[in-house]
């Protein structure tokens, strides 16, 4: 499903993430690691947001050779999302939905799942961290992605939204969507049927399961 080969990302600080070969079959996969270990670096590279050396393939589609087609198949929710403060969630949804080809029915369903209707028309500048996370998660499920990347998805959102997110992940998996997830919250990750668990440390990635 996903192949990362000869990957190298360097930072001016001296930190670098190096992956010789990283392959994932279809399913739900966990990436663990301490803060600053390189999880977000890898996620942003796969999502097409970071430059890197090497190759990333999704179902034989090469990110560097077909960046637009690749990005349409990969959705990403950041651990600490940031959006233009003058926009509201309605506007963000319209923008992402057009790019991802999301249907009106899908949008309305996701609004209900994440409980965002009360603040959709207010500017992002007024959002709490929980509101921002709900917005990010909703946007990550728009369209028809083959891979959804969720970085610390269970933080800052309320219990009902956490439960709904678990149900949504399981349903999307049942219809062929793959997931790459990081989380420190064992209460929830123990309820997600992961197909593999990997750990990033010292700029390298290691398989645990």
UniProtKB/TrEMBL annotation:
UniProt domain ABC transporter: residue ranges: 2-209
Residues passing through the membrane, by range: none
Origin: domain of life: Bacteria
Keywords for this protein: ATP-binding, Nucleotide-binding, Transport
GO MF terms held by the record: ATP binding; ATP hydrolysis activity
Pfam families per record: ABC_tran (PF00005)
InterPro entries in alphabetical order: ABC_transporter-like_ATP-bd, ABC_transporter-like_CS, ABC_Transporter_VariousFunc, P-loop_NTPase
Claim: Membrane is one of the keywords in the record: no
PROSITE patterns per record: ABC_TRANSPORTER_1, ABC_TRANSPORTER_2
Full protein name: ABC transporter domain-containing protein
The organism of origin for this protein: Cyclobacterium qasimii
Highest classification ranks of the organism: Bacteria, Pseudomonadati, Bacteroidota, Cytophagia, Cytophagales
């Amino acid at each position: 499903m996903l192949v990362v080969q000869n990957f190298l990302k360097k930072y001016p600080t001296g930190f670098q993430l190096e992956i010789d070969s990283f392959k994932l079959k279809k399913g739900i996969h966990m990436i663990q690691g301490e803060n600053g270990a390189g999880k977000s670096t890898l996620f942003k590279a796969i999502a097409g947001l970071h430059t890197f050396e090497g190759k990333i393939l999704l179902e034989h589609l090469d990110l560097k050779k077909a960046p637009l087609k690749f990005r349409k198949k990969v959705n990403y929710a950041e651990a600490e999302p940031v959006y233009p403060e003058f926009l509201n969630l309605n506007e963000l949804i319209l923008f992402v939905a057009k790019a991802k080809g999301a249907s009106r029915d899908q949008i309305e369903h996701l609004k209900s799942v994440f409980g965002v209707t009360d603040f959709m028309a207010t500017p992002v500048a007024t959002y709490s961290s929980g509101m921002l996370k709900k917005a990010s998660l909703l946007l990550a499920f728009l369209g028809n992605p083959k891979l959804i990347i969720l970085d610390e998805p269970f933080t800052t959102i309320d219990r009902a939204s956490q439960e709904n997110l678990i149900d949504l992940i399981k349903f999307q998996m049942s219809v062929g969507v793959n997931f790459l997830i990081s989380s420190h919250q064992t209460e929830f990750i123990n309820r997600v049927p992961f197909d593999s668990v990997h750990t990033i440390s010292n700029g390298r990635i290691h398989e645990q399961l």
